[in-house]
Amino acid sequence: MVFLGTVAFVIWQPGRVTPAVAATVGAVLALVLGVVPVQDVLTVWNATWNATLTLVGLILVSLLLDEAGFFRWLALHVARWGGGRGARLFVLLILFSAVVTALYANDGGVLILTPIVLELARALRLERAATVAFALAVGFVVDVSSLPLTVSNLVNIVVADAFGIGFAPYARVMLPVNVATVAATLLALWWLYARVVPRRYDVQALPLPASALRSRGTARLGAALLPVLLVGYFLAEPLHVPLCVVTLSAAGALWVAAGRSRALSSRAVVRSAPWDVVVFSLGMYLVVYGLREAHFTALFSRWVEWGAAHGTGALVFGVGGAVAVLSAFMNNLPAVLFGVLGIQGAHVPEAARSLAAFAAVVGADVGPKLTPVGSLATLLWLHVLARRDVRVSWAEYFRVGLVLTPPVLLVALRALAWGHA
């Protein structure tokens, strides 16, 4: 009951009940009612601190670069590369969104890319149908393309930490899966929206890319930090350095640079950072940990054991499909936490456990797009659209999610299974 009530309020968010508040109340209830022993709070914190602080660091980096105009500068270049052809622009924006998501995480990506795409649509005077098509394409891509790196999604970091999967081993498995997923997404989106994408657009109506830059020094430092960040991620594991140290160090360097610019307010960016993600992550994990104490996760453990006993395909599609459905209807963070505890409790060979963990990541990254409540990124996307007077009803979203998500999920899981055949 505590779990279901918490998830309901995370999704519903009535009044001032934010996801962080709902998760905190649920965690307190779990502790007061004895569902979770107080001594397990430290265990839960040890399982989530690196993931949440890494995400906060990445979003800080992305918000600082967005404040400097870096992503708008890039997006305007992408729009010019489209050469006035609507189809080419549609494809380029999807690929651009996939790259930004991979490097700066899905939650940061949706906050950055959605306003940019809406600004481009307004500058090009696109009709509502085309504007929604571009916005929904970006909103869909920021979740389903968050597979390739551990830092691309909070759930990726949670799973990697839980099973001791290093940055490089994770990337070796999931980069090919992500390529297949983005390709399938691109085909599905084009099939759905080809009729509303304008054939031509006026490149001259776009502002000059240089006009987007508010702080050239901060933007240059951000561009220089990107390869340093990637190298740092690969070196973090052998040097036994937590990923959050790498991302927070980069965020600190950018914050200092932004603070020296008169055009930026670095303090405002830090105040607007999603610090409540830390609270939400810890609180939600405590609530889900209560399901483990009540032996509910044992049911998932048996499901994992059944899949392992019936081969690679059964394990991948069984675990990935189950986590995808759970993610779609109760949000992907609690769903993947539930899956992690179930996989950890399953009596299977280590290779099967690792494969089940990767399948859970695929399910938690792609499955949420089935419904508007599946991930915080989608809820943020709907909120950004509403603030810009672009209304997408839940019914409209459901229709699109039901068409796009199942085939993309099947391609992603099949790519993972083939990679381990």
List keywords for this structure.
single chain, 421 residues, 19 helices, 0% strand, globular
Structural summary, described in words:
The chain crosses the membrane at residues 46-65, 86-105, 177-196, 217-234, 240-257, 269-288, 308-329, 397-417. This is Arsenical pump membrane protein. Keywords: Arsenical resistance, Cell membrane, Membrane, Transmembrane, Transmembrane helix, Transport. One of its GO terms (cellular component) is plasma membrane. The protein is mainly α. Helix content is 76%, strand content 0%. It has one domain (2-419). The longest helix is centred in the N-terminal third of the chain and has 28 residues, at 40-67.
Proportion of residues in extended strands: under 5%
| Largest sheet: number of strands, sense, barrel closure | none
> Count of helices?
19
Instruction: Give the end-to-end Cα distance, rounded to a whole number of Å.
Output: 40 Å
- How many domains in all? 1
- Determine the mean pLDDT: 90
Helical percent range?
Answer: over 70%
General form: globular
E-strand count = 0
Helix/strand-derived category reads mainly alpha
- Output the helix-strand order: HHHHHHHHHHHHHHHHHHH
Low-confidence stretches: none
Rg from alpha-carbon coordinates: 21 Å
